[in-house]
Write a structure and sequence with these properties.
CATH class: Alpha Beta
Largest sheet: 9 strands, mixed
Radius of gyration: 18 Å
Number of strands: 9
Strand order of the largest sheet: 1-2-3-5-4-6-7-8-9
Low-confidence stretches: none
Domain Acetyl xylan esterase: 3-305
CATH superfamily: Alpha/Beta hydrolase fold, catalytic domain
Number of helices: 11
Active site: 185, 271, 300
Binding site for substrate: 91
CATH topology: Rossmann fold
Organism: Compostimonas suwonensis
Helix content: 25-40%
Strand content: 15-25%
Mean pLDDT: 96
Number of domains: 1
Shape: globular
CATH architecture: 3-Layer(aba) Sandwich
GO molecular function: carboxylic ester hydrolase activity
């Protein structure tokens, strides 16, 4: 069944999320600090046995200079700089196996699939630890360091994403003018954030993106991972204002308000994990050219392979 307000209401919906006064300053300082570390990209060829795609184990410097891993997949035999896709994983997942996720390289793109620090044991493999600890938190990543924007987990993850774009743009196999960011769910939210923080990004593909529109989602969505936050606040009753302030720095709605790259979104109207209104909260706030695929009978899978095919057409048309 539909999980939110009808489509005509979604098309005009506006999130109540407010932007912190120092939002841009906070993120400019964060990104600048990360760039004081040499991105120091290291590639190691992986013998996968594949004949049409070459795969490299990648490491580069992310937030705090921490070493972040990923896979670089390139069409075999490519002899000129390629358009590139930097992909961010969904919640609980990592970069996966070297021979997974071959769609983008098989479509003629260089594909840098970034690992998510501290994740990668839920449904796909990860290989990057998060060396930063946090205070008490609910199980999962959503409340790690949530009492402060400076300590919050997603500050590190989104900064890693910016540095992944920086890393991709240094590689001879990639055309630095044609680097786009892509993600599903958590990865879609990361793509919106990185697209706003890295003006070098050519385009953004945000499929069923979250986390977005925290004010509405936390009030109406009892599904995890949103419930990680409500579980935390059910115990830390005096921290509501501080947590709400922290989350405002990481809401896709606020990043969307500073978008400069063209974007392709998608939404499933039967999605119980990321409410359609939260997707439209970010989409309707998005200030650059945009389009959205609406899947009326789909949930959090969105359009699945049809989303990917539409995304490929969108990027090839740029």
């Amino acid at each position: 069944m539909n999980t939110d307000i009808p489509l005509p209401g979604l098309e005009v919906y506006r999130s109540s999320q407010l932007e912190p006064e120092d939002f841009l300053q906070f993120w400019a300082s964060t990104v600048a600090d990360s760039r004081t570390h040499d991105v120091d990209v290291v590639l190691e060829r992986v013998d996968t046995g594949l004949e049409t795609v070459d795969v490299y184990d990648v490491t580069f410097s992310g937030f705090g200079g921490h070493r972040i891993r990923g896979w670089l997949r390139i069409p075999a035999g490519a002899n000129e700089p390629l358009p590139a896709v930097v992909e961010f994983a969904g919640y609980g997942g990592g970069r996966g196996h070297a021979i997974e996720n071959l769609f983008w390289a098989s479509s003629g793109f260089a594909h840098l699939h970034m690992d998510s620090r501290g994740q990668g044991s839920g449904w796909s493999l990860g290989a990057t630890p998060d060396p930063v600890g946090s205070g008490p938190h609910a199980p999962g990543m959503w409340t790690q360091g949530i009492e402060s924007p400076e300590s919050y987990y997603y500050r590190r993850l989104y900064t890693d994403g910016v540095r992944a774009v920086d890393a991709a743009r240094t590689l001879p196999a990639i055309d630095p003018r044609r680097v786009s960011v892509v993600g599903v769910s958590q990865g879609g939210g990361a793509a919106i954030a990185v697209g706003a923080l890295a003006p070098e990004v050519q385009a953004v593909v945000a499929l069923v993106p979250g986390p977005s529109d925290f004010p509405r989602s936390l009030a109406l969505n009892d599904r995890y991972p949103w419930r990680e936050v409500t579980d935390y606040l059910a115990v830390h009753r005096g921290s509501v204002a501080q947590v709400e302030r922290t989350l405002a720095y990481f809401d896709a709605v606020n990043f969307a308000r500073h978008a400069t790259a063209p974007a392709r979104f998608s939404v499933g109207l039967m999605d119980p994990v990321v409410l359609p209104s939260s997707v439209f909260g970010a989409y309707n706030a998005y200030t650059a050219p945009k389009g959205i695929a609406v899947w009326p009978y789909n949930g959090h899978e969105g359009g699945g392979p049809d989303d990917l095919l539409q995304a490929r057409r969108f990027l090839l048309a740029l």
